[in-house]
Amino acid sequence: MSRSGPIDADFLFALFEVQRLLRLYADKQAAQYGLTRSQWAVLAKVDRTEGLKQTEVAELLEMQPITLTRLIDKLCDSGLLERRNDANDRRVNRLYLTKAARPLMTKLAALRAEIAATAFTGFTVPETHRLVEQLETIKDNVRDALQSANGATRTKERRYG
Questions:
Q1: Spatial CA neighbour of 25 closest among 118, 109, 108
Q2: 137 and 70 fall within a common domain
Q3: Between vectors from CA 86 to CA 65 and to CA 67, what angle results, nearest 5°?
Q4: Of 28, 31, 108, 131, which is most buried with the most CB atoms under 10 A?
Q5: Is the pTM of this model over 0.70?
Q6: CATH number of the domain where residue 65 is located
Q7: Which residues have CB under 8 Å from 72's CB, separation 6+?
Q8: Does one domain contain both 39 and 105?
């Protein structure tokens, strides 16, 4: 990688390009199981926290509810996910993996590990942990900046609106 350009341009370009390539690779790998990366993401969220509302999954995945509904419809049709009525609110659907999805989730966990291993080829375990810690710090910094910007916007709106 060239070190001649400004670090901000190098950093952003590298980060965005890594994200793009990882998405393409994950799409290709998920396809072997008849899934898209987006469907895989829905299954993974539900697997981590079964019983989530569709709206909660949409928020967690930063996805429009209509887009998520289409994904969930396909996953339900394929027998991997099921909607169950909420005991307290009939308007709410909660999401659960089906028994048939369990073996697939085991395969997808192995696939996730394989993708990570591919990405981290040439790194030592401590280097990998350090990189993840650094990325978490960057994520926290950007999240804090967004929250500060949102707070300033809200304050300004209250003052002038």
A1: 118
A2: no
A3: 10
A4: 108
A5: yes
A6: 1.10.10.10
A7: 42, 54, 57, 81, 83, 95
A8: yes
3-state secondary structure of 137: helix
pLDDT-derived band at 13 (thresholds 50, 70, 90) equals very high
| 4, pLDDT greater than 80 | no
Work out the mean pLDDT of the chain and round it to a whole number: 89
Residue 2 lies in a domain: no
- 119 vs 15: CA distance, rounded Å: 13
pLDDT at 144: 93
93 and 136 assigned to the same domain = no
| DSSP states along 130-153 | HHHHHHHHHHHHHHHHHHHHHHHH
| 52-106 pLDDT tens trace | 999 899 999 989 989 999 999 999 999 999 999 888 888 888 999 999 999 999 9
Range of the domain at 139: 123-161
Count of domains forming the chain: 2
Is-contact 76 82, C-beta < 8 A? yes
**Is residue 138 assigned to a domain?**
yes
* 15 and 44 co-located in one domain: yes
